[in-house]
Amino acid sequence: MTNANHQDSLKLHKTFAVVSMLFFCSVVCVAESGPALMKNGDNTPIPCIIDGKMGFCHTDGSPAIDGKYDEVKSFSEGLAAVRVGGNWGFVDKTGKEAIHIEYDNVGNFHEGFATVTKSTRSGFVDKTGKELIPLEYDFAGDFHNGVAVVESGRNWGVPERMSGGKYGLIDKTNKIIMAPKYNEISDFHEGFAKVELGRKWSDSEDWSAEVIGGKYGFIDKTGKEIVTPKYTWAGNFHEGLAEVALDGKYGFIDKTGREIVQLKYDTAEQFQEGFASVELNGQYGFIDETGREVVPLRYAWVRSFYRGVALVAVNDTVRVSNNADVIELIDQAGKKIVSLKYGYASDFKEGFAIVELNGKRGFIDNTGREIIPPKYDAVDVFDHGYAKILSGGRWGFIDKTGKEVIAPKYDDVGYFDGQTVPVKLNGEWGVIDKTGKTTIPFRYDFINSFQNDRAEVSLKGQSGHIDRWGRFREEMIVDIGD
């Protein structure tokens, strides 16, 4: 959490130069009309370009807030961040300035507070603009359940990851819940956050520097250290237990820090449906939440349990004529349900697992039934009901019945998000919908998959963002280095 948020929240303006909107529009003209804009349910204005500047539009495309800003962010908790020149502030849904435009950087509102930064110092404002928590920290994360991560003691003259800053926790009154002392505090999972202490870096001053040492433990939301940092690796809590490692051996602890599963395995995965896969000396099996080996460690590999079943590869020398390993579908007692003669099988997702036979791939369901025969050169897991397929060097999509809903004809494809997908044809990227209809013309050098109705695009060496229909765009930016 801390490293990623640093890069987003404390990015200096000298790192990027904003290319004028007129230039942007000269290299990417306004997109053709597409399908009706998605309704967001509460008529919240969305970012758009109006007369060459950033503003906000209604979901039907009509202007809501005049285009007079150099950059804007989406609304959060009723306010939106806007930038004029090098300064940020906030406006409400009518366009009225709610928080004066004076900060070097701002975050979105979470639980009534937003992070603000000025001259590398960060704090928090409320929705009236009052600085309830002074700008006294080197970094301030968002509030979650009344708690925020903050950093102090950073040396701004060295690369961020070697800065020596320490992280702690505060509440909404700026009360120190836990004094900054950790090198890292991760996101909270099931009420606990992983912390790291004792990290050092090798002497190299460039990106070849390596971490030396560092131990992991856990804190709760009161800042209490539940598990003293002593492990060389730790995962997050899931189903009440967390993977930990020491001296190359893995086990599990509970939320009191007690080692429920002895640290004796070479690898371990997080619990799923009450079971975790473990490996020792190249043999895989499953343990339950007490550490009991309910499925003996005798398999060449195993996949996680899904709706009470798991795929495993029999660990013997048996081969069938097509050179495939013997794969079994087992229940939670380790009992074989059915043998499957494939050379590969993936984890289940959306009810299906990828299987391979004679170099071709298809899908089975969680009963082991072959739903889509192995006939494709490559496939990907189902996502939002669709899966990528590669046939004859071209990509397309199938649905869960195996129907080729989008014929394999594309050079490359992204991921469906339930509505549209970026695709590449004849060296150019565009966007299509579920029927294969083009919603954004093929003209881009690259289009990433959509997240929150926006996708990163690149064109003629410039990069920026488009919405799902290409109608509204943020400014293009060019990385010019330090």
Structure commentary:
The chain has 482 residues and is mainly beta. The chain has a domain at 38-182: YVTN repeat-like/Quinoprotein amine dehydrogenase (Methylamine Dehydrogenase, Chain H, 7 Propeller), CATH 2.130.10.10. Helices cover 3% and strands 50% of the residues. It has two helices and 49 strands. The strands form 13 sheets. A seven-stranded antiparallel beta sheet has the order 27-28-29-30-31-32-33, with no helix packed on it. Strand 6 and strand 7 (87-91) form a beta hairpin. The longest helix is centred in the N-terminal third of the chain and has 8 residues, at 2-9. The radius of gyration is 26 Å and the shape is flat.
What is the CA-CA span between the terminal residues? Answer: 24 Å
- CATH topology of the domain at 38-182: the name is Methylamine Dehydrogenase, Chain H
Query: Could you give the count of β-strands?
Result: 49
Largest sheet: 7 strands, antiparallel
SS strand fraction: over 45%
- Helicity range: under 10%
Overall SS class: mainly beta
Unreliable runs, pLDDT <50, ≥5 residues?
1-41, 317-323, 472-482
Report the average pLDDT across residues.
85
What would you report as the Rg, rounded to the nearest angstrom?
Answer: 26 Å
